[in-house]
Amino acid sequence: MAEQDGTFSQQQGSAFRVVLVYAVFAALWILLSDKAVETMFADPEQIVRASIVKGWLFVAVTTLLLYGLVKGQLNLLYQSKEKLRSIVRVAPTGIGMVVNRVFTEVNQKLEEITGYSREELIGQSARMLYPSDADYEQVGREKYRQIAEHGTGTVETRFQRKDGTIIDVLLSSTPVDPANLTRGVTFTALDITQRKQAEAGLTQLNADLSATLQAIPDLLFEVDDTGCYIKISATAHKLLAAPVEQLLGHTVQEMLPSDAAQTVMDALANAALVGADYGRTISLPLAAGLHTFELSIARKKGDSGQHLHFIVLSRDITARKVAEEELRQRNEELERFNRVTVGRELDMIELKKQVNALARELGREPPFALRFLEPVAAGEASREA
Asked: Chain-centre distance of CA 210, in angstroms?
């Protein structure tokens, strides 16, 4: 609107200058020419004739002057229109004009967007660009509603290109005649298909990420290098040291036992240096009892703020620790059992040796076969092999 007001003011200024030049010239002509005639002629009849000639000469001169002034203004107007057409022609946005629902002007970019040539668009109904009558009518209603309320209308719609493909378009319209909104509009058309696809992809990515986070049983935190909780994602809230609203904005030193907090801060410091830290464990007294967590920390890339940010994955390994402890205890019991069993077997072998020795002293055959205890001779080993 400000641009239009500026153009209108310039046009008014040009018209005023033309009128002013004409008025000054006419006034000077009348004043000076009358004095000149009075000076040159004394006879009334000669004065009348000179006045007639002066009048015709005034008409001729002012006609030439007016022609020159008007021609100059028309040249300026033509140049302005040509400049505007050049700008519109190479504009990176599709631009067109629709009067009585028919295209009267389009630029090169609009041809590229729609796939139609200028000749195919001019004189045709704007309906040809819409996939259906419903799309066309809906855009028309919304567009004129906004124009009536705000002076311009911007809507997102769909165009059907010449090759049949459907594209997303952002239309911005301004009425040709503000007093008659149904007469026609000038409009810009921006192809936003890629933007809409990117938005849909981002929406899907966010949905996938949200579903993934919901499926992860671990606790996920974002903290800064001071240990302050920034974000929290947890499906098992019972495993948190405190409710989410109490953790956010507070530090691990405030919310965790001192030894656990120190372990977390050491891990953050190491991740700040090398990018990540894995395998440290902390123990937290929760309502369900003492739980052990294994920490995996990675420094967040792209931080431009005052503090570094980190992603912390906290996995509850309490059940694993209990299983490991049970396995350790059973291994110890088995080892004790093995030692007892081996000891008894050795005692039995020793007793059998004594019985065999006593049998030999009495001249009898030893009752127990204990040859497996004797070293195997080389020849016998070969035969056995």
From this structure: 17
One domain for residues 302 and 242: yes
Higher-scoring residue by pLDDT: 355, 21? 355
What pairs with residue 187 in β-bridges? 96, 173
Q: Please check whether residue 175 lies inside any domain of the structure.
A: yes
Shared-domain flag, residues 146 and 190: yes
Of the residues 282, 316, 350, the one at which a domain ends = 316
Q: What angle do CA 157, 120, 155 make, to 5 degrees?
A: 15
User: How far apart, in whole angstroms, are the C-alpha atoms of residue 380 and residue 98?
Assistant: 112
**Cα 296 to the center of its chain, rounded Å:** 28
pTM of the complete model = 0.47
**Residue range of the domain that includes 168:** 94-197
For 17-65, the DSSP string reads HHHHHHHHHHHHHHHHHHHHHHHH--SHHHHHHHHHHHHHHHHHHHHHH
Whether residue 181 contacts residue 140, with contact meaning beta carbons closer than 8 Å, is answered with no
- Beta strands 184-191; 276-286: pairing state: unpaired
Residue 248, pLDDT score: 94
Residue 294, Cβ neighbours under 10 Å: how many? 17
pLDDT digits (tens, 9 = 90+) for 169-190: 999 988 877 777 667 888 999 9
Per-residue pLDDT of 12-46, as tens digits, reads 666 677 677 777 777 777 777 777 777 777 777 77
Tens digit of pLDDT for each residue in 272-321?
999 999 999 999 999 889 999 999 999 988 665 678 999 999 999 898 88
Contacts of 275 (CB under 8 A, 6+ apart): 298, 299
Q: How many domains does the chain have?
A: 4
Round to the nearest angstrom and report the end-to-end CA distance of the chain: 108
Asked if 79 and 100 sit in the same domain, the reply is no
Q: Are 280 and 294 in contact (CB under 8 A)?
A: yes
Q: What is the mean pLDDT of the chain?
A: 82
| 221, 310: one domain | yes
CA 144 to chain centre: 31
Q: Are residues 120 and 187 in the same domain?
A: yes
- Asked if residue 378 belongs to a domain, the reply is no
CB atoms near residue 185 (< 10 Å)? 25
